[in-house]
Amino acid sequence: MYKVLRSRAHRFSTKTPSFFSTLLNNCLSLESLFSLKLIHAQLIKLSLCNTNTFLGNRCLHLYSKFGTIEDAIRSFDDIRNKNVFSWNIYMRVFINFGDIKSARQLFDEMPERDVVSWNSIIAGYYSRGFDDCALDLFSKMQTTGVIPSEYTYSIVLSFVQSVHHGKEIHCNMIRSGLDFSYVIIGNSLIDMYSKHGFVDYAFNVFLNMKELDVISWNSLIASCSKSGYKEMAYNHFRVMRTTNYLPDPFTISSVLTSCSTILDLRKGENIFSLSIKAGFLSNSIVSSAAIDMFSKCESINASIRVFKEIDIWDSAVCNSMISSYANHRLEENAMQIFALSFNKNVRPTEFTLSSVISCAVVFLVVVQGTQLHSLVVKLGFEHDLVVASSLVEMYSKYGSTDAAKIIFDEMEVKDLISWNTMISGLACTGKTVKSLNLFEELLKTGRQPDEITLSAVLLACNRGQLIDRAMAIFYSMDKEYGVKPTDGHFTSIVEMMIQAGKLNESLKVIEAMPYGPNSYICALILTIYGIHGDLKFTERVAERLMKLEPMSSLPYLVLGKAYEVRGRWESLARVKKAMNDRNITKVMGCSWIGIKSRLFLFKENEVVHHGGEDVFSTLRLLMQDIEVEAYI
After folding, report:
1. What b/e sequence results for 518-548 when a residue is b if at least 16 CB atoms lie within 10 Å of its CB, and e otherwise?
2. What are phi and psi of 600, to 5 degrees?
3. Are 171 and 152 in contact (CB under 8 A)?
4. Contact at 8 Å (CB) between 2 and 38?
5. Which residues, including other chains, have CB under 8 Å from residue 148's CB and lie 6 or more apart?
6. Nearest to 260 by CA among 319, 324, 317
7. Are 53 and 27 within 8 A, CB to CB?
8. pLDDT, tens digit, for every residue of 560-610?
9. Which residue pairs, CB below 8 angstroms and at least 24 apart, start in 473-480?
10. Which pTM was predicted?
11. Residue 598 pairs with which residues in a beta bridge?
């Protein structure tokens, strides 16, 4: 194109504005800044930018697309007869470059403003996160007599903060006589009602729309999926296929998400097959949804096959694979995917880092955790709510509650999950007083604790053996906080009483449990009272545990020991025979320790392991020293 321009430069003076308009269109298709500047220079030389406002606006528009802000400013100054389109394009330049302050100043100085001007500045504020300013401008727009267009309502409906405000705007649209045949308005209303969980309103809008498109169906299907009506989302997808509207990648990903939530592998496989036939599997949104669906439907091998076959390395796909591995307790594989994605220049998101930090906790190697923390700071995610909460949980599980508390205190915004994580972390490490004090701080903020918060508080009371305080909190949960005691809360109270030797009192609490004692309570009772306690009571508890956990060896072992100490050899023989018949074996206990980024596993009664000879040699020397000291 450059050669063509140079060869015809001497004849430019004879060309019409339409000729230059065609050249400028070519610059847009090629995104050639050099060619644009060359044509712009010729227009200035021929005084066409000064006299022809259309060509001046066209140059200004192109500079806003792929030029610099300085080029756009000079182009705007060259336009002698500026109209409202010139000002609108110029304002969009500042908005596109992120200078919303200069855009607002220019908006206030505009000699004339039309609906496009208002739409641009409202959308600009919304894109920068200033929703309140955008809403204020929308109100001022109506007072100045400018009638909002369908695009205005579409922008405003995308960020209304409550469904009541959305309903007001909906009524305003009806009163203004806006033609609801516009697809964009109907889709915006469906999306707005869906975000706030008003699926019935979204349905009414959908059914009353004169014209539909794929986005309309997508919005309705996503509405059902996000609001908990997963089966309905799948059924409407089937209805959509009977119409003339073909599903797109967003449709497929929404339906796959619905299948993963209802754990319907058969339906998910059908949708997955359809995505392959339609050629959508190369789309990262679809492939990540497929990986997530197979994982949640307990088909992790299928997730791995999809990940390997598509060979797509972007944040969405990698996040799905990492979370899939993490959810199936394959933390080492998740860390490997994270390392590979990092080597392939896939920038981690906050969700990636949160998943990986949760995996690092399992290895109990503090070095890995601190390295991930350094990466979080380097990438600028230290103030992200999700990542910060994961770091708090990680350091709490490492036992470094001081480090966790520092991160917690520096969090600019704390949600209930953050509070729960910190309270639970302090409780798990035995810092009862600090945990309960933090709970009091939470109550002072006006937030209502949930069942997880109260579970952490009861755990703190359990670790500190504060039975009276735990009972007071337990019996006031429903009345003061609106939380009905769950199985976990009953378990904490019963465990506390049993460990304190109050078996009779704990039995009264157990009788109040909606579904009877769970396996943990049964195991606890058998461990503490099973062998030397009342034999009939031991037998009843053991039978209960056998029903709850048929493959558990504990009830058989406790019963056998109880029969043995009482000399009931026939009963002991029956217990051993039952274990053999049911193929029940004793679970081998193990412990592990992390040293220099390596994890060492030690099984119960294990004699030979890595470095075992040196360990036992050292133990023998220690025993000799102890014996010598005993005789001195």
Report:
1. bbbbbbbbbeebbbebebeebbebbebbbeb
2. -110, 130
3. no
4. yes
5. 115, 118, 138, 141, 142, 156, 176
6. 324
7. no
8. 888 888 888 888 888 888 888 777 766 556 666 655 555 566 665 555 555
9. none
10. 0.65
11. 595
